[in-house]
Fold:
Amino acid sequence: TVSMVLALLATAESSSEHPLATAITKYAKEVFGSKKTGKVINFQSLPGCGLKATVSQIQSFVQTGAQCNQMVNYINRLRSGEQDLELAGACLEFPKHFLQPLSEGTLIHLSTEDGAGGGGADAGAQMDNITPSNLPHNSEEAKYSVLVGNREWMRRNFIEVGLDVEEKLGREEELGRTAVMLAVDQKLVAIVGIADTVKPEAALTVYSLKKMGIEVVLLTGDNKKTAAAIAREVGIHSVYAQVLPQHKVEKIKNLQNSGFKVAMVGDGVNDSPALAQSDIGIAIGSGTDVAVEAADVVLIRNDLLDVVACLDLSRRTVNRIWLNFMFASIYNLVGIPVAAGLFSPWQIKLQPWMGSGAMALSSVSVVVSSLLLKCYRKPSRQKLETLEYLKAVQGESDSYLSIHTGAELDTSIKPGRNFFSLHRLSHSPSPKKEGLLLESDEDDQV
Structure:
């Protein structure tokens, strides 16, 4: 049943720290109106691929979902023939025979599927040849082997992905969604399409970073179609798709060996090795604890424009340090010879008390100059949204897009410039750029 699929999916994902897993579990709990899921044992996960777990004790969770108002209304409207319905913002597709009432307490064996989804944690599933399970009727004792992941994960676990499923996956990926599959007891039962909504400020952040002389590149674990859709939406020119955590580290090492200074912005478990490897690791405060611990800088707000503000403030701080150094150097180069009496023949003298005052004034001036940074105000969205930016956004859809896989090396980037790595952004090939910004994707999307 619909409730069974959501219960198995949410329970398996509840043990994962991946942002998409959190979204799926949260969605199911909101639909069911329950804070508890089933029991998970033998949990295993492979970054960039998927998870495997044994799920049990889900009957009460399933019954709660089947009896909740949202689910009852949804099923009744589907049986009445209504089309394009959403269940708490998610689109689910099922054949009519899947919606027939089942006798109370009957378990079903989930079989081959179809489906699509979208929005938040959207799932689509189609079940064929549904038959009563030979599991015990006391469903709390029933155990299910659950797999959730991408094509590579299904292949590694010897689950065949048919052409009809590939077609469904392709449709989801072209819409910019992350598509994963759910398999129960070695049978594929559902496709889940998750739309990790692009942040409203993502495109403006990319543009602002480019204007600052930073080149931006996107690293994502998603497939090429999904990565391309996101890249075009936010103004990315260079993308590395199907990237595993170790690929992110290798890419950063290659750039560092080529003479780049690399910064990395990420928020997930898969980003933590790359955050540690980069010259500057920037973590989003709403990300996982592992990513936050691995980063050098933590952005408290979940706002990508803070990346621009962070870099802008850093540059102003460094410029202020150089200004103070130059002022102090000139001050002392002039003051010390005068205090030493080198200009006495010309009646230019400095009394001892005047020298002491001049020395104190030097320290005070430097401190006051540094305190002026307290007047700093980060660039506002209104200030960054210039007419030039609006024109650039309109012409972005026709811009050149270079897509690579995780195993490929970027031969278009020449050494001699800094490289800034950020989670899901873009790279500009302009020779005038001084830096490179690369964004990594935990799931990987902005």
